[in-house]
Amino acid sequence: MSVRRAITALTAAGVAVATISGATSATAGERHHPSGAVAFDRVATYPVFENRPAGEDPATPTVAEISAVSPDGRTLIHTDALARRIGFLDISRADRPRGLGTLSLAQLGNAEDEPTSVAVVGKYVLVVVNTSSSYTEPSGRLDVIELASRERVASFDLGGQPDSIAISKDQRYAAIAIENERDEEATPPGGEEGDLPQAPGGFVQIVDLTGKTPAGWRLRPVALTGADGSALPALVQAGLAAPTDPEPEYVSINSRNQLVVTLQENNGVALIDLPTGRITRVFSAGTATVSGIDTEKDGVIDLTGGITDVPREPDAVAWVDDRYLATANEGDWRGGTRGWSVFDSRTGRVAWDAGNSFERLAVTYGLHNEDRAGKKGTEPEGVAVAEYDGVRYAFVGSERSNFVAVYDLSNPTRPVFEQILPTTNGPEGLLPIPSRGLLAISSEEDDASVNVRASVSLYQLGKGTPAFPSIVSGTDRAGTPIGWGALGALSAVPGKRDQLYSVTDAAYGQTQILTIDAKRTPAVITGALAVQDATGTPVGYDAEGIFARPQGGFWLAVEGAKGSENKLVRLDAAGITRQTVPLPTDVAAGLAKQGLEGVTATTDRQGREIVWVAVQRELSTDPTGVVRLGRYDVTAGTWSWFGYRLGSTSVPGDWMGLSEITVVGDRLAVIERDKLNGPAAAVKRIYTVPLPGAAATGPLKVLPKTLAVDVLPALRATNGWTQEKLEGLTVAGNGEVYAITDNDAVQDATGETVLLRLGSSGKIFGRS
Length: 768
Known about the structure:
mainly beta; Methylamine Dehydrogenase, Chain H; Tachylectin-2, Chain A
């Protein structure tokens, strides 16, 4: 499927302007990797906290930002600014990366020194380190570390605060962006808080990698301002907003030793000839007008918004070839166009722009971050270009939606979308390793309190169907991707062998029932039904369970922030609320915020409907470790209750609970899970209990449970961050068992949704 957009590129005073509208998303049936196609597939995810120094608390923040690799492609080195160190990984076995320890940069300087980027030249690791004491007195150094011994063999004063580093293909030059970044809390004369200009201005350091040892290397600064701090004519003529404060951000070098450097806050791009150190061109990245995107944080994925004449403000940049260059238009304080662009370096004009397509990829793959809709959306931050087996690929990373999009760049001005790679939170470093057919992605978000940990993920190029995606959305009649996420429930569609229903929860302001075609691989969301209250107004239920009634309509299990808000809701086929059933007062009073989590039902030959619900955690009045299964007789309007005994884990702070319930013959199948994810995940299981034939009387009877299947191996088989919320389960009309994970709408979670095809009901549950 081609992500192509015809654009009108206008240039005036060196400013490139593009207007992009319409839908250019990846839709169902379009290049989701038919079997046998070449694709990248994730083979490992390594949590970098596992590589911490001995004795360090595992909850201590530790990240992986920018990474580099040894010449043999077997040792990966990454920066960790939070911990003031660099980390080493053995990736000789791509499917089994192994920690090789860390090196403290602070111990080579002082406790506040932060590595900002890293590169490798032969047997040396080049680490750029921010040593600034303040924004007005920026400083930094280049440390040269021998890879084998991890000893520092040279160090150079960079004369300012560094950001990124790049090495020329012939390894004659290194180039470092000396950003001297602005203080977001400072107010320059006549400006606003955080505004430009803020002296001193940044520049570029060229390192001539000459001589037999690093001792022979020399630095050549390339000024981007006059000696007195005045603006250079080239920057003024390009129309930069603050040419006395260029703010260089990211660097890349082509085979002709031409350097490109982005001036992000100035929305500019500069070209420098490395042998001479001469600035050859400066141009504005221009503005873009983009329609068909979500621009409001309102709990609704609404792709009818737009942005007008917004500066691209590119972050990362990569040469496509010796003429064209690609930018990731993350934006900073004035802009960000939610996509990426290809520029012609000879003219400074836009040769191609992603328009709304990058943002719509996030929606299609369930990775839309509604929390960021009103800001910069997906925030494409990183871009890398590399050739694998004769095919040139671009990799573009979304900082806020946790994915990397892969494009075929065989034609630099007509990129073709290939696939999405799921990542852990905040993908920062994109490292192609073509010699081994690998791609490494390092992530910068780390918060042990919510089990979001930084990692290095490895992807292998090969034939076959990658594990991700397992579910995507199709488009509506207008060609717009169907927005989705937080799929915490499943139900079979009566009379449809291969179709499923799911429902969104409180992560969104409006509840939707989604129809899933599970016959296709990946499964495709083909329709969305808005849930409405009794007046026909769209409503936002915290729907944690759904059951499609054979007689028409639906039951929803609705959870609440407190016990009294838990209820059963019956909808008609149009999604309108027709009945609300509260929990008994004593049951509601015993619940905290974890309440109803699943619903299913049976109807006998006489038409008597019995609804079953699963309560996630114990009532305060019940024994520890015993949760409730509820039986609601629709005709009689009465509740009765049965007990279910949970297992346990030995992890402090963990808790166990139920996530789903469904009828399987003469039994009830439930999901029992822990609160853990990633490498700590321990319990993701499906059990069955006998289906009681009558209402319960007397003391709470605990039903005997039987393990049907341990789902944890299937979740780990994705080679990603093992998902916490295994929450949906059903048996489709075709007799196949499906389970799904809730991605929490990309909040404190990777955002990846896993739809599991566990096998036939007979295989999983036996014959009833």
